[in-house]
Amino acid sequence: MENIKNKIISILKKYTFDKKIWENIPENPDITKDLKINSARIVDIILDIEEEFKIEIDDKSLEGIKTINDAESVISKKLEEKK
Amino acid sequence: MVYIGNDIISLKDKKNLQDFFNPRYLKKILTEEEFVFVKKNKKYHFLSFLFWTCKESAYKILVKKGLRKSFSPKKFNVNININNKCKNNVIIYGHVIYENCKIYTSSLTNNSYIHTIAANYKNSVSKIFCGIKKIKSSDINKQSFYTRNYLIEYLARKFKIDNSNIKILKDDFTGIPFISINELKSDIEISLSHDKEFVSYAILYKKIIFF
After folding, report:
1. What one-character DSSP code corresponds to residue B73?
2. pLDDT band at A43, cuts 50/70/90?
């Protein structure tokens, strides 16, 4: 799980304009509110996640991804389904 | 309650062009019907930009109405009046459907950007005031700051008060911006947007305000 989280963070870091934002974030940051990533970049993030984990994020799952932990649980579920 | 949204997108930006010409990206943001419709049109990337701004504007309204889900663009169905033939410098009217909600849109298009304003009531769209400004490319890093200042300057001129009396604050829980004038929360409905070299705002006065 930690590995998934680290991979998500490194994808998100590509799209956070202000790198200092990572110095003082809540435990489970909201991707748009806390990391200040705009919705246009969310699509890039989803494409990167799909490529990194070789999964497909459907529209319903995308709606449920507000925080890093949400992303982690959606990815874990998709990886489980692949097995 | 009337809510408004707005969204601006730069048509010249390299990253935007790269995304909106990428079929994989488009398949993430357009419904199957929209994708087919867009692909059939000669100006297909232009329509993709237009659909995106309509979806974004509609999402901003739904968040104000209480939606707590993330933006999933394919769940927003855009219908536009294509009698305008999508020429430059025209306004394209349309609506966006999300589940059982209908949001009305009006989009200004030209060679440089598309700017969409939206409201949850059809007759409110024409009552929205908006501003669009091009900022210096060196200022792009401060887009959010410039967007806010642009709106504050407009309101200060309009109400003949000092800029320092107007603040744009955000609701702690929802992150939705609102205007505070002389330390009091106003009921002016606002929406802010920025993309690359463009900043924009939309305002709807719910009632006449006297100072």
Report:
1. G
2. very high
Residue ranges of chain B that CATH labels 3.90.470.20: 4-130
What is residue B120's predicted lDDT score, i.e. its pLDDT? 97
Say whether residue B145 is in contact with chain A using an 8 A CB cutoff. Answer: no
Range of the domain at A21: 2-82
Interatomic CA distance for residues B154 and B143, integer angstroms: 17
Give the Å distances, CA to CA, from A21 to A13, A15, A77: 10, 12, 29
Q: What is the pLDDT of residues A5-33, one digit of tens each?
A: 999 999 999 998 788 889 988 999 999 88
- Whether residue B69 has pLDDT greater than 60: yes
Given B25, B74, B175, which is nearest A59 (Cβ)?
Answer: B74
Domain B4-130 has what CATH class?
A: alpha beta
What separation in angstroms does the CA of B67 have from each of A44, A59, A60, B60? 22, 16, 14, 9
The answer to whether the CB atoms of B19 and A40 lie below 8 A apart is yes
Contact call for residues A20 and A47 (beta carbons, < 8 A): no
Q: Which 12-71 residues of chain B touch chain A by CB within 8 A?
A: 19, 24-25, 28-29, 52, 56, 59, 68-71
> What pLDDT is attached to residue B211?
45
Inter-chain residue contact B70 with A64, CB threshold 8 Å:
yes
Cβ–Cβ below 8 Å for B69 and A44: no
Q: What is the CATH number of the domain that holds A39?
A: 1.10.1200.10
How many structural domains does chain A have?
Answer: 1
Question: What is the rounded CA–CA span in Å between residue B58 and residue B65?
Answer: 11
